[in-house]
Amino acid sequence: MKALIIGAGIGGMSAAASLKQQGIECEVFEAVKVMKPVGAAISVWSNGVKCMNHLGMGYIMDKLGGPMLSMAYLEAKTGTVMTQFSLSPLIDAVGERPCPVSRADLQSMMIDDWGREKVQFGKRIERVEQDESSVTAYFTDGTSATGDFMIAADGANSAVRETVIGKKIERRYAGYVNWNGLIEVDESIAPKQQWTIFVAEGKRVSVMPIADNRFYFFLDVPLPLGLPEDRETLRNDLKGYFEGWVEPVQTLIEKLDPMTTNRIEIHDVEPIDTFVKGRIALLGDSAHPTTPDIGQGGGSAMEDSVALGMAFSETKDIETALAAYESMRHERATDLVLKARKRCDVIHAKDPAATETWYQELKEETGENIIEGLKQTIVNGPLG
Q1: Residues near 249 by beta carbon (within 8 Å), at least 6 away in sequence
Q2: pTM beyond cutoff 0.90
């Protein structure tokens, strides 16, 4: 039995590892010639780390995961601590730590774990055909590949999704722009083992520790869609957006490199009705693109892959297994998309009164409610 895996990102490589555990041969195809991850880093919460352990890649998380031991929200104009607490109760409750990691390093190590020489790069999919016994992928370079089934992990702009759901769907702009990148740890910005978030005015500045003494940072600003990007003016633009914010934020803006800082207009899509059509299944962002506001995009793709393996462990009948995969994942993945959307709207002041209420709640927060919310998100995955 052979699977065609479309996409060599986090979802595709997780899926390949999961199917390999079930004795299924996989051919992996990636559209780009050189992997260039979108975004500097990724928050892999405990559910995603559990999935990586299950897939035999836990060592990657051990190597790349930052020492994020606590969490704090600060009022961005005054620097007043709104809430600050240890993440140990969460780790104790769910049995695994969260691991913020470099996205580029994560993808590279996952590809190396599979075997870089076994990934076919420069294979952009153009169309797909399936019959009762096989699926064929046709690529823009004129080549094709045939397998018994296909896992399409080709991202939020999936070329395969329309084949599965029968229509083209437009992405929905979430209303804000995110800038992100990496800098060396600087404790004048934030403690080196803490996830620190500055909030005010529906904006957010965050720093997380990752491996090798680095901070992953991101800055969010509600802005209209389609504004031009100019790296030459980025630092001054950010100073304008965050005028009056505390010195640690100003230090971060001074330290970031405009040439390597990513700018992303954040989108998601309306939840789709199905992830599967016959012998083709969508996985990760191709199935359920989400905003990053609860940090579950990568983790959800890892969960998909674990569920896919579980489905094939019960039966090697392809259409039965893919239907079981969809049954395990559709409600959970949809819930994460909608939960992230709801959190996005509160963080970024879609309703300013709701955002102000959240700020006031943070000032009274001991950490218990936040930890409970994180726990409920984590434990509903396929590995508990």
Answers
A1: 76, 198, 205, 242
A2: yes
